[in-house]
Predict the 3D structure of the following.
Amino acid sequence: MPNFKRNKRDGNEPEIIEALQRCGVSWRRLPPGAGADLVISPNRTLVSFVEVKTKGGRLTRREIELQCWCQQNDLTYLVLHDAEEVFETYLPFVKEN
């Protein structure tokens, strides 16, 4: 069972959300301990889970479990550290898919 009281939002999450909004990507926050911070969708056919990490941040056991589940089910699980990664990593991925 996730420890919802201990988990906190990363300080860089607002920057990443703002970048996603500027790109027209729909997003929704997931509850702390869910294994990802956001679920995002640039269109009706592509859904991705996003874990926001500060530089040097490491995935928790729950985050790794969700990442593995996503891989097994052909879903995208992204780890984003800043707005620049949204523009350089995520947007090119969207254009390919």
About this structure: DSSP finds three helices and four strands in the chain. Confidence is low (pLDDT under 50) at residues 1-5.
